Amino acid sequence: MSHSTTAPGLPDILGPGLQVVFCGLNPGVDAAIAGHHFLGRGNRFWPVLHLAGFTPHQVAPQDDRSVLAFGVGLTAAVGRPTQRADQVGTEEFAQAAADLLAKLALARPRWVAFLGKAAYAAMTGQRQLAWGEQPERFGGARVWILPNPSGLNRGYSQERLVEAYAQLQRALG
Predict the structure, then answer these.
(1) Is the pLDDT score of 5 beyond 50?
(2) Which CATH architecture has domain 5-172?
(3) Are 24 and 115 in contact, with CB atoms under 8 Å apart?
(4) The pLDDT of residue 9
(5) What is the per-residue pLDDT across 115-126, written as a single tens digit (0 to 9) for each?
(6) Which segments of 57-110 are extended strands (E)?
(7) What is the domain partition of the chain in residue ranges?
């Protein structure tokens, strides 16, 4: 099970033995068209992933499938591409929960890292969420909530993102 589809042109990157699956909110239009995760200009996911210690070098979006070799998987909470994540509503995230739970139950990663609080809050009905490790599991995986690396998230500098992602890397042991 290394290749299923979250959106036309944007495959999940999942496989056996993953340490963590990073779960974005939903694909950007450019990423969905190109078929590669975190492709948008200004998206800091790839440099942050490397600087936090998940990959030995910075992966190019076009080489996104190579993260499997490092125990990392990629998916999206909602498959529908949009220009901005705020174009996906709470109800759409909630409706996507069953599909995401099924994917995670099949892939069986140790951790799922939600990139932002919105999807996880909508999927679980929780209102008060802290960053970092969560007490419950989701799809059998331990849960960690990270700030979204989108360039539109001006509340977090790249340095602060790296610090937050490195905390998860340390938790992987």
Answers:
(1) no
(2) 3-Layer(aba) Sandwich (3.40)
(3) yes
(4) 54
(5) 999 999 999 999
(6) 72-76
(7) 5-172
